[in-house]
Structure formats: structure tokens, C-alpha cells
Design goal:
single chain, 10 helices, mainly alpha, 216 residues
């Protein structure tokens, strides 16, 4: 009987954890939509609960406050980006091939309606919420940069590249592939680059980037 009770307790705990995870994802989905539609200041926690279901008390228990919820939305988005890039670490693809795939994946995932919408919200936070915008600047893409830096270190170990600072090199590479297209998407409503535009920009960026890092 005790063994059965322990197993039943474990099953119940697993079920509760699963339901909590599902509720968290529902909150994040609803919050993302409300922030995109209404902006950060106008976004209502009550509206988020109305869309996601659950209760305000559960929402606050999981995220603390609206700032915590917004950061959780952004963090999930960043993890999606970094997860797409982690595949290259296990593939150990040659630098030119790997960086092209990394660049194309990064830009294609970043410059979507959701990605650009959240970036616009973040830009609007700086004057009134400097701590929140600073946290995004300092932590927002750190996982993505770390993933690219790890790939560059791997390619240096394969004697393809010569690095002084892999994290700075990763930062430069990501800025090169996103810069022009991101500015255009931010400033021109309704514009999002197609696959051919992304490929062309990334190909140019990879060529320029590798010219400075190859062993000579």
C-alpha cells in the first residue's frame, strides 16, 4: 500500500506540473498578443487572464508583475532563437556553410511580425522604463551570442578561424546579418524580408566576416 501511495503521489505531482506548464505557456501566448496589440503601458493583466484563462493570482504567482511577465515573453522568444542555432554546434559544419545557415536562421526567426512587434515595444520602453529596456539590452540576445561564439570557437579548434574575442566576433556577425534588414523592417510598416533578400544579405555578411577571420 505505501508503494502504491507513493506512485500515486508522484503521478499527481507530475500532472500538476504539466498543468502548471500548460498554464504558463497560455499566459505567455496571451501576454505576447496583448503587448503587441496594446503596448507595454496599456497592456492589462486582467485582459491577459481573460484571454488565457486561469486567475490573476496564478498569473502574479508565476511572473511576479507585469515587468516579469514581459521579460518572460521576451526570454521565451530569445530561447526560440538560440535553440534554432544550437543545431549547428552539434553539426560541426565548416565555417562558411555553418555561418550561412546560422545567419539565415537567425534573421528568418527574428524578422517576423512577432519579432519586429516586440522589438518596437522594447524600443518604446526606454524613456519611461530604462531598467526594463536595459535588461533586454544586456540579457536579451546573450544566449544567441553565446551560441554563435561557441560555434566560432569550435571552428577555431578546427583551424578554420583565428579569433581574438569569440563573443565580440559573434556580436559583430549578428549585427552584420540583421542590421540593414532589421532597420528597414522597423521603419517600414508591413515590410518583412523574403528568403531571397535574407540569403543575399547573409551571403555578403559571411564573405566579409570570414575575410577577416580566416587563417592566413
Amino acid at each position: 500500500m505505501p508503494a502504491f501511495s507513493e506512485k500515486a503521489s508522484e503521478t499527481a505531482a507530475t500532472g500538476r506540473a504539466g498543468r502548471a506548464a500548460q498554464r504558463r505557456e497560455a499566459f505567455l501566448d496571451a501576454a505576447r498578443d496583448v503587448f503587441l496589440e496594446q503596448g507595454y503601458e496599456a497592456a492589462s493583466m486582467a485582459e491577459i487572464v481573460a484571454r488565457a484563462g486561469g486567475s490573476l493570482s496564478t498569473l502574479y504567482a508565476q511572473f511576479g508583475d507585469k515587468e516579469g511577465l514581459f521579460l518572460a515573453v521576451v526570454t521565451r522568444r530569445v530561447k526560440e532563437l538560440s535553440g534554432a542555432l544550437q543545431l549547428e554546434l552539434s553539426a560541426h559544419a565548416p565555417a562558411e556553410e555553418g555561418l550561412r545557415r546560422i545567419g539565415q536562421n537567425f534573421v528568418a526567426h527574428l524578422l517576423t511580425p512577432t519579432g519586429i512587434g516586440l522589438y518596437r515595444v522594447i524600443l518604446g520602453l526606454a524613456p519611461k522604463f530604462p531598467d526594463l529596456s536595459r535588461q533586454f539590452y544586456e540579457k536579451g540576445l546573450s544566449e544567441v551570442r553565446a551560441a554563435v561564439a561557441a560555434y566560432l570557437i569550435d571552428r577555431e579548434a578546427a583551424c578554420e578561424l583565428k579569433l581574438r574575442d569569440p563573443h565580440r566576433a559573434a556580436h559583430f556577425f549578428l549585427e552584420m546579418v540583421r542590421g540593414t534588414l532589421a532597420h528597414r523592417a522597423l521603419l517600414i510598416p508591413g515590410y518583412f524580408p523574403d528568403a531571397d533578400e535574407i540569403r543575399e544579405v547573409v551571403d555578403d555578411a559571411v564573405s566579409l566576416f570570414l575575410d577577416g577571420l580566416r587563417h592566413r
